[in-house]
Amino acid sequence: MNIYTVATITALFFGLILQLWLFLRQEKYVFQHRNNVPELFRGHISLESHQKAADYTIAKTHLLLIEEIFTALVFLFWTIGGSLNSLDNFWRAYISTPIWIGAAFIISFSLSMSILDLPLAIYRTFIIEERFGFNRTTPRLFVTDTIKQLILFVLFGTPLACIVLWLMETAGENWWIYTWCVWMTFIVFMTWTFPTFIAPLFNKFTPLVDEEIRVRVTSLVERCGFHTDAIHVMDSSRRSTHGNAYFTGFGQNKRIVFFDTLVKCLSPDQIETVLAHELGHFSYRHVFKRWLVIGTMSLIGLSILGYLRHDPLFFFGLGVEFPSSHTALILFILVTPLFTLFIQPFLSHFLRQHEFEADRFSCQTTGKPQALKEALLNLYQENAGTLTPDPLYSAFYDSHPPAVIRLSQIILLENQA
Known about the structure:
Number of strands: 4
Radius of gyration: 23 Å
Number of domains: 1
Distance between the termini: 63 Å
Strand order of the largest sheet: 1-2-4-3
Helix content: over 70%
Number of helices: 16
Structural class: mainly alpha
Strand content: under 5%
Largest sheet: 4 strands, mixed
């Protein structure tokens, strides 16, 4: 047992304890407030809906508890348990070229992880979502989606893995800089291709057809300088009754997408304010800012990996017998979440600020803060989003502000108008 073993097990232990403590806080807090609708929501959210949201949140938190324990066991299985080493030896026995050994190793490891995750995904979809009336995914659709995801992973992941391994083997000491450039290019490429090439493989996208909504949307888009006609409705109801909207892509491939479930439960005024919120993300360049954060963290991570791959103790301490580029890459991917867990609150805070900015943009652009407030109230009710998350849990994990804080900010903007 060397310093890497001790550091990793220590980080795993304290990270697991921290997360379990936060999950238990969340369960306790939500349950304690289950029978009392917050004052801000009384008259808008019924006690029955509030209790359903509490029960749904508790059920999901129970699953998160199981997932974190399972993830810790899987980590030990692959590393100190020796399974990564066994997988590496298996491919070495059949393949002689280092890059192809590495590609086979990475792809088989990733597919194995997907298989290990399947039971929890099935439970989430067909037990929890079904119990609370949200699931519309059939077993056939679930299998089809899973197969499509695996095919896409192999199609995109294999060449990416080969390029990275080739750089690690041939680009010298600065390989990590070149790899970072490849990684960021890949992220930009996937962001650009997702709206028009990948998302349509899973869902059907159609233009908004309601004339009143279309006129409002067209006017709003023009006022905001969002040059695209790609505002679509997605058939999300095939899989779930949850409602949402999102902004994705860039350049000519940027899109704003409404779930069909959201369009059905909101009025034209409310849809306009939700659209303005998504346009706020565009106006404030939130996608670009998130790329900067991802890019900075990736560059720092790869520079650390550049050092670790030359230290045999790193491999031996985590159960790998033969140091190599591909085992270094997978070990680093497995270990990194243990040490970056503690910056999660800062990332969540960063993302919550984006939501506040987008809400403010919506209120100022449409002049309809009341409609935005009503839209959010409808979404909280339709999605069974808890109105009373534990403050500490929310600060650590939630990328969106808690309901009470978010609605309070909108009311403040309404009073200032």
